[in-house]
TrEMBL record:
InterPro entries: Helicase_ATP-bd (IPR014001), HsdR_RecA-like_helicase_dom_2 (IPR055180), P-loop_NTPase (IPR027417), Restrct_endonuc_typeI_HsdR (IPR004473), SWI2_SNF2 (IPR040980), Type-I_R_enzyme_R_subunit (IPR051268), TypeI_RM_Rsu_C (IPR022625). The keyword Cell membrane does not apply. It comes from Thorsellia anophelis DSM 18579. Gene3D superfamilies: 1.10.10.2110, 1.20.58.2040, P-loop containing nucleotide triphosphate hydrolases. This is Type I restriction enzyme endonuclease subunit. It holds the Pfam family EcoR124_C. It catalyses: Endonucleolytic cleavage of DNA to give random double-stranded fragments with terminal 5'-phosphates, ATP is simultaneously hydrolyzed. Residues 23-168 form the Helicase ATP-binding domain.
Length: 765
């Protein structure tokens, strides 16, 4: 546990003990709330507090109370992961009663609805007179209602604590009740600015997107009465607006989620919309536009888009900005919405070979399976109304598109789906809003942060990253992208000619700085426009005008972009190649070359960022086909392929294999890119079999055992010295033989190199 989690747990235990000794239970004086920002590990903190509370000799039962059925299931899984057999859960009110009657010290996990149903049905339970601790997840919403009053009425000796990342204060309360008035005083706080400074969560980059001139007036509307009017709600659903927003997301999705290179896994995204009607309209729009695109370009890989929604009771909000809860019970949905959802789930079932439905358990299983597939990135874009916008953690999500009015804690909760720490490529939570939420964003981060909140929580602008800025918190000057590119061009115009170790180190540091800033800029629409501008003839007035219209640029903006020079793709390939060569040299200096003499401990190689830019083997093979179609000689083709493959981390070991393929194949006879891929894999598998035969004979290995070891290594994509497979493959010799260890290391090294060269090709040798 982290220090702030320990402190919060200790405060809860102190409050329970002191209230017990003072006999001040069943009052806000005996409880309190923990304000720990979303993403800071509230579940672990609450579990530890609950677990330690069960060990207090005067406490009879500890309840962990959630306000939705999906969180009931999720919390049970999390708690069981922390400590098996530490909790009791139930699927019904009767099951809850049985858990209460058990003579054990397990934590009881329940929904507020089940607990309230039990209290209303039972007037004389023994537990009402016992010492009980209640720990509430997300200390607002339904905990303010009838169930809270029933707990206070029936339980005579309770201690009540709430966890929340976004408390209800007087500023965002609809009535008189706040988190403090219901649960008691704040016991510990760890707010979003603390978590960002400690690098426990990421900042937000918010784009207030207003690129639809016909709809700008309604998208900029701030008057809440007008926003809630039927006419304006319908205007937001205008088919042309739905189409334009969908087109924007499809065009920019791969930039926002770092999937620019073929095969890049990148991240996935969520799209928060205002209503079930909006979810339906957008789902159909994505489906239609992607089908149209595939009809034009059959090789286009469509985004896997899913949606989920349900019945939301028309209850009064507990606070300004509440995201309306949707029930996992679908029986109350109107027939049109349910029929549409049946069609959505039918699409999902066909894609994933599943069998879910909108019926009872079938819908709950769909919810759980969808959550799992979002986390594993099998779903690219999830359209939601209320579900998944609170309490759902998926570190692979980096972007939230928003066509929905959000305020205060609802806004922070929704934005926080994107800011979980993942890897170096994920620099911030990416928010793209299609409504004017600028003031709402500022109001929310002021309420839930501290002074300098805006500077801590929100990322810098495009201009600041391009031209440089001074970090307000650290006082350090940060160089801009333009200055970094200029220095790269000036100091290392030809990176292949770098010779001294000092220059190698200087280059690696400088190019690493370039990679970090370029990775940040990829999320900006302005940088997308700048990148696309490089391919346009700036002397072609007609092409420039079309470009200006497409990217909604003024003449001044276009002039500014034209003045910025980006490295060409060929220059970047050379930079990456030398960067990778230097990394390989540091890890294992080549025989005959001098070893490093400088201290490289202050250098960090941006491997995760490079991996996000990685090109796959199919891309390289398709490039070979296209370059050959342009009548290049084999010598020129080989030079081009060497340049591309040496800039790749994953495929560098395949250089000789690809060159041999080009030299030994009659490329002119291959008619399309699919055929060249098939031809290469046929060639590579034959080469693999030949090299395996040669290795077995050269090293005098046990044929059957050696093939088994090599096949296993190819399947897991690395060789291993552990286990008995390698030993079994070696020629028979005594373990005491002084040559045994040398032989084992030689064979291991050769198999490692073989696997690096042929991984992804297949096994079966």
């Amino acid at each position: 546990m982290r220090p702030y989690q320990i402190a919060a747990t200790e405060r809860i235990l102190w409050k329970i003990k002191s209230s017990y000794l003072a006999k001040t239970w069943s009052d806000t004086q005996s409880g309190g709330y923990i304000w720990h920002t979303t993403g800071s590990g509230k579940t672990l903190t609450s579990f530890k507090a609950a677990r330690l509370a069960t060990e207090l000799d005067f406490i009879d039962k500890v309840f962990f109370v959630v306000d939705r059925k999906d969180l009931d299931y999720q919390t049970m899984k999390e708690y069981q992961r922390f400590s098996p057999d530490s909790v009791n859960g139930s699927n019904s009110t009767q099951g809850l009663r049985q858990n209460i009657e058990k003579d054990d010290n397990r934590i009881i996990v329940t929904t507020i609805q089940k607990l309230n149903n039990l209290i209303r049905a039972e007037n004389d339970l023994a537990i009402y007179q016992k010492q009980v601790v209640f720990i509430f997840d997300e200390a607002h919403r339904s905990q303010f209602g009838e169930a809270q009053k029933n707990i206070q009425k029936k339980f005579k000796k309770y201690y009540q604590f709430g966890f929340t990342g976004t408390p209800i204060f007087t500023q965002n309360a609809l009535g008189s009740e706040t988190t403090q008035s219901v649960f008691g005083t704040e016991l510990h706080a760890y707010v979003i600015t603390d978590a960002i400074r400690d690098e426990k969560v990421l900042k937000f980059k918010v784009d207030y997107n207003d690129l639809r001139p016909h709809f700008k007036q309604i998208e900029m509307e701030q008057d809440e009465e007008k926003l809630s009017s039927a006419a304006l709600k319908q205007a937001f659903l205008h088919p042309e607006r739905i189409k334009e927003v969908t087109q924007y997301i499809l065009k920019h999705f791969r930039h926002k989620t770092h999937r620019l290179k073929p095969g890049s896994k990148g991240f996935n995204a969520m799209f928060a919309v205002s209503s079930v009607d909006a979810a339906k309209a957008y789902y159909e729009s994505f489906k239609r536009l992607q089908q149209e695109q595939m009809a034009i370009s059959p090789n286009t890989k469509p985004l896997n888009v899913a949606t989920i929604f349900s019945y939301a009771a028309n209850e009064e909000q507990d606070a300004i900005g509440d995201i309306t809860d949707e029930s996992l019970e679908t029986s109350a949905m109107n027939s049109t919405a349910r029929e549409f959802l049946d069609g959505v789930i039918k699409d999902y079932n066909a894609h994933f070979n599943a069998n879910f439905s909108t019926e009872g358990e079938g819908f709950q299983q769909y919810y759980r399976d969808l959550a799992k597939r979002v986390k594993s990135q099998e779903v690219d874009l999830l359209i939601v109304v209320g579900m998944f916008l609170t309490g759902f953690d998926a570190p692979t999500l980096n972007t939230l598109f928003v066509d929905k009015n959000l305020k205060y804690h609802g806004l922070i909760q929704a934005f926080s789906r994107t800011n979980r720490i993942y890897d170096a490529t994920k620099s911030f939570g990416n928010i793209v809003t299609f409504r004017n939420l600028e003031q709402e964003t500022i109001d929310a981060i002021k309420l839930f942060g501290d002074k300098n909140t805006k500077n801590v929580i929100l990322e810098k602008s495009f201009d600041e990253y391009m031209n440089g800025f001074t970090d307000i918190l650290s006082g350090k000057a940060r160089r801009g992208f333009i200055e970094i590119v200029a220095e790269l061009n000036a100091r290392f115009p030809n990176p292949q000619e770098i010779e001294t170790e000092a220059d190698k180190k200087a280059f690696v540091k400088l190019f690493g700085e370039y990679l970090r800033v370029e990775n940040l800029l990829q999320n900006f629409d302005e940088f997308t426009a700048l990148s696309e501008l490089q391919a346009i003839d700036i002397n072609n007035a007609e092409a420039l005008e079309a470009f200006k219209i497409e990217h909604h640029l003024t003449d001044e903006m276009l002039t500014e972009l034209k003045g910025i020079k980006l490295p060409t793709e060929r220059e970047l390939q050379d930079y990456r190649s030398v960067y990778n060569d230097t990394r390989d040299w540091l890890r294992a200096p080549e025989e005959g070359k001098e070893s490093p003499t400088l201290d490289w401990n202050d250098v960090v190689f941006e491997v995760e960022i490079l991996n996000s830019l990685e090109i796959n083997l199919d891309y390289i093979l398709t490039l070979i086909f296209k370059e050959k179609q342009s009548q290049k000689t084999k010598a020129d083709l080989i030079e081009e392929v060497r340049r591309v493959i040496r800039s790749s981390l994953d495929n560098r070991a395949k250089e000789s294999l690809l060159i041999d393929f080009i030299n030994q194949t009659h490329l002119e006879s291959i008619s399309d890119s699919a055929s060249i891929i098939d031809a290469f894999f046929t060639f590579a598998k034959a080469e693999l079999r030949r090299e395996v035969e040669q290795l077995i004979q050269t090293e005098n290995l046990n044929d059957t055992a050696a093939r088994r070891y090599i096949n296993s290594s190819l399947k897991r994509e690395h060789a291993s010295e552990s286990g008995t497979e390698l030993n079994d493959a070696l020629p028979k010799m005594s373990l005491l033989n002084p040559e045994y260890k040398t032989k084992k290391q030689t064979v291991y090294q050769k198999v490692s190199e073989l696997v690096e060269k042929y991984k992804g090709i297949g096994s079966g040798v």
